[in-house]
Amino acid sequence: MRWTSKSRRLSCAFWFVLVLVAVPVFGAEKGSGKHKGSDPALFRDPDDGKFDVSGWLSSRYGFLPVPIIITGPTFGAGGGVNLLYMHGKLAGRVAPNGHRVPPNITGVAAIATENGSRAAGAYNLGYWKNDRLRTTTFLGRPNLNLDFYPDVLGNELTVKMNLSGWTFFEEVKWRLGKSSFFVGGNYVYSTSTSSPVDQGGPVIDELLQRDYTIGGLGAAMVYDTRNTIFTPTRGTFAKVVAATHAGWLGSGYDYPSFRGQLLKYLRLSRIFDLGLRAEAQSVGSSAPYFIYPSVQIRGIANKRYQGQHVVVGEFQLNWRVYDRWRAIGFFGSGKAFGDNKLKQHTSFSEAAWRSSKGLGFRYEIARQYGMQVGVDYAWGPDDTAFYITVGSAWNSFY
Fold first, then answer.
1. 364/179 Cα distance (integer angstroms)
2. What angle do CA 273, 262, 388 make, to 5 degrees?
3. Which residues, 6+ apart, have CB-to-CB distance to 129 below 8 Å?
4. Counting Cβ atoms within 10 Å, is residue 246 exposed (0-12), middle (13-18) or buried (19+)?
5. Calpha distance 132→178 (Å, rounded)
6. Which end of the chain is more exposed for a tag (fewer CB within 10 A), N or C?
7. What's the CA gap between 14 and 74, in Å, rounded?
8. Taking the model in full, what pTM does it have?
9. What's the CA gap between 55 and 323, in Å, rounded?
10. pLDDT category of residue 261 using cuts at 50, 70 and 90
């Protein structure tokens, strides 16, 4: 998405986040009734008196409507809402490794964008038995219009495809003793119809226009010492998933897949935090074209640089400018290589690095939960992009 006048109007979206994120929906009072109605104390930190929603999240059961403001280059401008429900308080629950247990979260979300994309889904993030057991459940119906670039060797051919169907995902992980390691597995099942939105031509239609059914079973290992799942500033998150997709799992395509992710958060000084990200993904050559991984960093449209294998690296510097306000600087780079859907091969050394950089800012909106919200502006190799970030740009809830 280019920086159009429509994009500029989204400069006020951050304030929309600050206002709407604090509005309870179907809120029910909890406890003895210390906070009644819309008590302003629920939205002020008792220590510094600043705007903060931790009190409301900790004092009530109820839905929290979080706006979804889409400004990236993949779908164009758009938005939606995420009705998020936190089950109970954050305080008082301690995991076997001594860290605080995140709240269980259930939600429903829906989006729509200017390029005609629509999607809706429901999810649950469960932290059970004092975080000895973690579960992730998702059921959704996407109807998305995405640009694909079948020739990754330099051909500028662009095909806009529509993907519509259903997706189900379930993951279960169990903590190993009192350590920060988890082991488990996941299952994904999806049905989708792929069809060109723009005229693709006979070769493209033969490759991309069809119905797909995907079923896959994966083994997962996770290491997690982050100080919060929302906007971490310290700790490590690492995850490795190896999966197989085959007919006996309900899949119409047989292929393996692999994903490894490492996120490291460091406190450099009293005012500077550093985040580091490294990621690698790979799929078998018989996977459907939309399953092929792509370079995913701020400033680059999803599926723009796509290949059988992808590696990505990124860093982000967080500067405590004043009180709850942070300034952000980030840089990322990645490359896609291996076979593409036209069976053309690009080696790792032949593939180009695709890089982006950017600036942004954050406001600490829920100190007790370690949650920040803010704005990022990224310069990519093809375009510029504007993002609203709630939590972390590298969200890893699963």
1. 29
2. 60
3. none
4. middle
5. 9
6. C
7. 20
8. 0.84
9. 19
10. very high
